[in-house]
């Protein structure tokens, strides 16, 4: 099976952040492989280890995103393509257009990606790309298996889990509930340096100017109004439990 | 004057309250800006729900009725939305942010070449489109966004707006719809698990959520007793759904459901940012945890430091007294 996994470098959401004049400032430039994409890489590795095949990762981003590509290669992906952009960030529709143009002349069984980016949580690019490429797809996958030339997806829906069979080629977006992505071994890290990584300049893809125009824009950031810590009770459990129950009734009016 | 279309989501034979919240908001926006608001119901029994939707004041209701919509599948839903959009020619289509919506929103935007903003907490119309607020960075930060274009799609978090009835005698328009195997593209083989008759978390007034601290059988028993007394939905942190203790559809957080109930009781939950991202907009938060330094206490209105096995029995007992 030939897997392409679309990955993204994102800021570490656990790192401290500040807002200055409406701009988001990271105290460190700590970036990570998007956690949902890491699960997609892991699952592609598991399936190709079982059924044979190849995992190629694709990343759109500036030069410093190469370290994120190395991470995926160190996990075990076989090769990588880096679509190199300048510093600007794009909206989901631009990412999807760039990827659609990249995949136009490629052969594959499965394109996978994380179900959302952990910084913006938009969750749009996967199904946009499927639509551009006219592929059957599923989102929010929590388990994958390959059987009889189909990809079988367990999808977390609103009320329950759906077992969906997709014909190949197809696209799937992955939840981080799918697996625990492997930590690259020292051997994996050493090998990653010799694995093929092709860099394509964005201009070389000759994408329509209009497809690169974002339809949405972030105009600013602000702090979320902070919740104040309320009353904290550390006394004897029997008494404090009863006291809080009464407060919920008499003070908060929520029971 | 342009048309603002609201998608009415149906789940378990009921209209999702969150889509009526979106419809209420859109109707107020339409009045302010001189537009008309319409609704679309896509379901195996779509016509059953038109009466209730009329209570919220759309001028037209489109129905697409077909057995294929008994369970969610993205390809036929997209086809149905495309047909309705062709007929209604809306400048804006608004959705409640459900898993079904998340499954199709990007694809629909690509198909319609529409601008799209997902999972917003508020939005309003502007001259060129919409302005919307989205929580980002695990909901620690709010981003302000603009979307412009001839057609805009937006999905809205549940609990963002109040319901407001305004009865209308909306015209009901049935859209002719059929599917063949070609349209399905994928096969739905099985619905593996379903939370069945449990309370829908995205709509629950009260939620009792269990974390790692309530992992064992006795903890689970106490959680369900507490939920019974309060007629609450039961949720879980990722630790418990991953461990297989709780159904994955009950997970609350950045990865799972985002909820905003009147009362949220976190039991044995430390309060990792990924969990907080899914519940921080609850009106009143109660935390029960034996670790006095657990971060959940920083956002709790009422914090009880103590072992849940000591705290919950008297807590439940007192709530029973209040209820009676």
TrEMBL record, chain A:
Keywords per UniProt: Electron transport, Transport
Biased composition (Basic and acidic residues): 221-240
Region (Disordered): 218-240
Domain of life: Bacteria
Transmembrane segments annotated in the record for this chain: none
SMART domains listed in its UniProt record: ETF (SM00893)
Transport recorded as keyword: yes
Residue stretches making up the Electron transfer flavoprotein alpha/beta-subunit N-terminal domain: 21-209
One GO MF term: electron transfer activity
PANTHER family: ELECTRON TRANSFER FLAVOPROTEIN BETA-SUBUNIT, ELECTRON TRANSFER FLAVOPROTEIN SUBUNIT BETA
Protein family membership: Belongs to the ETF beta-subunit/FixA family.
Protein's recorded name: Electron transfer flavoprotein subunit beta
From TrEMBL, chain B:
Pfam families to which the protein is assigned, alphabetical: ETF, ETF_alpha
GO biological process: fatty acid beta-oxidation using acyl-CoA dehydrogenase
Keywords for the protein's UniProt record, in alphabetical order: Electron transport, FAD, Flavoprotein, Transport
Molecular functions (GO terms): electron transfer activity; flavin adenine dinucleotide binding
SMART domains in the cross-refs: ETF
Residues involved in FAD binding: 212, 237-238, 251-255, 268-275, 289
Domain Electron transfer flavoprotein alpha/beta-subunit N-terminal: 5-188
Top-level taxon of the source organism: Bacteria
InterPro entries: DHS-like_NAD/FAD-binding_dom, ETF_a/b_N, ETF_a/FixB, ETF_asu_C, ETF_asu_C_CS, Rossmann-like_a/b/a_fold
Presence of keyword Glycoprotein: no
Cofactor(s) needed by this chain: FAD
PROSITE patterns in the record: ETF_ALPHA
Cofactor note: Binds 1 FAD per dimer.
Similarity remark: Belongs to the ETF alpha-subunit/FixB family.
Xref: PANTHER family: ELECTRON TRANSFER FLAVOPROTEIN ALPHA, ELECTRON TRANSFER FLAVOPROTEIN SUBUNIT ALPHA, MITOCHONDRIAL
Function: The electron transfer flavoprotein serves as a specific electron acceptor for other dehydrogenases. It transfers the electrons to the main respiratory chain via ETF-ubiquinone oxidoreductase (ETF dehydrogenase).
Protein name: Electron transfer flavoprotein subunit alpha
Protein's organism: Fodinibius sediminis
Lineage: Bacteria, Pseudomonadati, Balneolota, Balneolia, Balneolales
